[in-house]
TrEMBL record:
<dbReference type="InterPro" id="IPR021695">
    <property type="entry name" value="Phage_KPP10_Orf10"/>
</dbReference>
<protein>
    <submittedName>
        <fullName>DUF3277 family protein</fullName>
    </submittedName>
</protein>
<dbReference type="Pfam" id="PF11681">
    <property type="entry name" value="Phage_Tube_PhiTE"/>
</dbReference>
């Protein structure tokens, strides 16, 4: 029986937000994607009959950590500040996260930076944790 062999490389993932390829990710867990709602809910009646109902809420949060020295921090800061100062959602745009070697893809057409990251300054280099909200995120996890 042959044994399967797989390989993983975090550099195989690309993150593009509002046309900007992001770079300079922090070590360890650098990208976290979480949907707000479950795809289906259920409810039980007094007689025990169960009904399942679909949730059409596909909102999600994408949180990613960049090293403090990442050039993407400056670009994201400029995008956030322009969005705050300009009317009509200047900072809203597409987001795409994909595995260039596999089939994992997360994509949304309306995404925005929720707030500026917390900044901690000290002797060691810190990270910047950015949070992007997505109005409707579609996903294929491979």
């Amino acid at each position: 029986m042959a044994h399967a062999f797989d390989q993983y490389d975090p550099e195989d993932y690309s993150v593009i937000f509002n046309g900007i390829p992001l770079e300079g990710f922090a070590e360890d867990d650098c990208i976290d994607i979480e949907f707000d709602s479950e795809g289906y809910q259920d409810q039980v009646g007094a007689d025990g009959r169960v009904v399942r109902y679909k949730s059409n809420d596909q909102r999600a949060s994408i949180t990613f950590s960049l090293m403090a020295t990442s050039p993407s921090n400056k670009l994201l800061s400029a995008m956030y500040n322009a969005d705050i100062k300009a009317p009509n959602g200047l900072g809203v745009g597409p987001v795409l996260i994909r595995d260039t070697r596999g089939v994992t893809v997360f994509a949304g057409t309306q995404a925005w930076i929720q707030k500026m990251p917390k900044s901690t300054l000290g002797q060691k280099l810190g990270n910047r944790e950015w949070k992007i909200r997505v109005a409707k995120l579609e996903a294929v996890v491979g």
